[in-house]
Specification:
Length: 174
């Protein structure tokens, strides 16, 4: 995965009401609706954190939303579960990610994903978790994530996970 470098003049900011979120269009209605209707409220309630990628004219080129959650020991694949306690375990959640249609196909999604994983890794230095998980909105999104070492959770075909070791490798090459 390439490092999170964006074009000159672009920036990543925490979502606020000044960002033109009503204009965002990724091609997936759920991904768009989340940003337009729910992301800001959810951020204010400290349920999720949403960051937007702004181009040099302050258009939203993309965004991602992160949260913490728990996963039950019994839902983990055997290789991840071994040596872990038999209880609910902390995970980081990549809840949403989208790129505006006018910017798709230029490597922005890949770099935004890398940026979100660096955020997850940095958070892990303060609040520990065992993996990053996400729920795919459709099979195309699933193919996108599977390119970057996300694997299926047994019994949940649309839920993917990235073990902490892989997160570390992707985020810091370690
Ligand atoms: C999925 C999405 C984020 C990809 O963003 P993007 O900027 O177009 O992707 P990139 O240009 O960074 O592509 C990176 C790689 O993924 C591949 N890719 C991109 N979209 C893909 C898709 N839908 N399915 C499979 N592979 C995909 C590209 O071919 C590229 O591979 P390559 O480097 O081998 O050429 C974007 O298409 C989008 O927002 N879609 C609608 C919302 C969505 O599905 N979000 C994800 C789930 S919440």
């Amino acid at each position: 995965m390439s490092g999170p470098r964006f074009p000159e003049g672009w920036s990543i900011e925490l979502l606020d009401r000044s960002h033109p979120r009503q204009k965002f269009k990724s091609g997936n209605g759920d991904v768009d609706q989340w940003l337009k209707k729910s992301a800001l409220q959810s951020l204010k309630k400290h349920l999720t954190t949403t960051k937007v990628l702004l181009d040099d004219a302050c258009n939203i080129a993309g965004y991602y939303s992160l949260a913490f959650s728990q996963i039950d020991f019994s839902d983990l694949p055997a290789d991840l579960a071994k040596k872990l306690p038999r209880r609910q375990l902390p995970v980081s959640v990549l809840a949403w990610l989208g790129v505006d249609q006018s910017f798709q196909g230029r490597g922005i999604g890949q770099r935004l994903l890398a940026t979100s994983l660096v955020d997850c890794y940095e958070a892990s230095q303060t609040f520990a978790f065992i993996a990053v998980i996400l729920d795919c909105v459709d099979t195309q999104a699933k193919r996108f994530y599977q390119q970057f070492d996300f694997a299926e959770l047994p019994g949940y075909p649309m839920r993917l996970y990235l073990p902490f070791k892989s997160l570390e490798t992707l985020a810091i090459g370690g």
